[in-house]
Inverse folding.
């Protein structure tokens, strides 16, 4: 039986995932201290204690106050996009300050970290394989996009902090108004240039993802690393077909990513100045056909996805792609 009545600090609480995690953890009988960049009255309801604080600029004293009485920290706050300077500040510096403050608490809280499936390697030998928690992580982050590089570094910061740590690596989160297409190709208005037909798209429904964090807060699966993915992730062609039923894209132009890969290799000396899909490692990581496994989360967390891809997709498309 999981622990109830804990005080849980949730960073990034006003975000797309954060609001769902706040609701799940409140529903388990816990007290939630919701950390946000700026106060938005009513955004998180009346049951959460909301605190406005910029983690990347917070002082040790401010963080000590926020952490007083906290049993578990769910760290969701990070930059979802932006160049390396943005990631360094909003993802890495924020995590450094938070974990240092946690380690200095008289009784350090446990940490549940939101990482990403992007941390896995993009070696060509993985093509056609199943990505699970035993898959090697990226060993040469310099060739990857800033988000993947930051998530790799964020995991290291958390692991080196000496805290009780559980890492969850969600796939792309599918929910109302949120449809992911980073693993498909290039979109220009009504046109999708589909760079790969084979392989699966790593997705998880919003409610299922939030429930995984709620379970981790109870202490189930403590110390583990878990991929958080829906059952039977859709194929790329199946995902595109579902998107088209929602009205986008109107046109699909298949173009094999390997042709673009040759160009990316020629341009590689330009390094960080290149867009993500013109970096060889990033292009391969996003487009190489692979499959995904969520078995460890089922056994370690006792977590089961409850929403099918079809149900989550219908909910997402009610608001639009």
């Amino acid at each position: 039986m999981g622990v109830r009545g804990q005080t849980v600090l949730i960073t990034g609480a006003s975000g797309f995932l954060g609001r769902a995690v706040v609701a799940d953890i409140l529903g388990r009988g816990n007290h939630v201290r919701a950390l946000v960049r700026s106060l938005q009255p009513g955004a998180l309801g009346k049951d959460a204690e909301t605190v406005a604080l910029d983690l990347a600029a917070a002082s040790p004293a401010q963080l000590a106050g926020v952490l007083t009485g906290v049993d578990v920290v769910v760290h969701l706050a990070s930059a979802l996009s932006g160049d390396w300077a943005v990631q360094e500040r909003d993802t890495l510096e924020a995590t450094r300050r938070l974990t240092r403050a946690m380690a200095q608490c008289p009784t350090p809280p446990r940490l549940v970290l939101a990482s990403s499936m992007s941390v896995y390697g993009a070696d060509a030998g993985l093509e056609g394989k199943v990505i699970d928690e035993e898959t090697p992580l990226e060993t040469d982050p310099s060739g990857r996009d800033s988000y993947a590089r930051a998530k790799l570094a964020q995991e290291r910061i958390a692991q080196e902090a000496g805290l009780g740590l559980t890492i969850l690596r969600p796939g792309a989160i599918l929910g109302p108004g949120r449809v992911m297409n980073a693993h498909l190709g290039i979109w220009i208005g009504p046109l999708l240039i589909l760079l790969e037909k084979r392989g699966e798209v790593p997705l998880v429904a919003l409610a299922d993802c939030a429930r995984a964090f709620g379970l981790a807060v109870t202490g189930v699966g403590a110390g583990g690393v878990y991929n958080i993915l829906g059952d039977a992730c859709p194929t790329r062609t199946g995902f595109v077909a579902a998107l088209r039923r929602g009205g986008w894209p109107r046109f699909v132009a298949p173009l094999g990513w390997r042709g673009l890969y040759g160009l990316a290799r020629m341009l590689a000396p330009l390094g960080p100045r290149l867009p993500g899909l013109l970096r060889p490692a990033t292009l391969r990581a996003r487009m190489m056909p692979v499959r995904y496994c969520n078995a460890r989360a089922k056994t370690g967390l006792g977590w089961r996805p409850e929403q099918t891809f079809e149900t989550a997709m219908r909910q997402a498309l009610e608001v639009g792609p």
About this structure: The chain has a mean pLDDT of 93. The radius of gyration is 20 Å. The chain is about 35% helix and 15% strand. The longest strand covers residues 31-36.
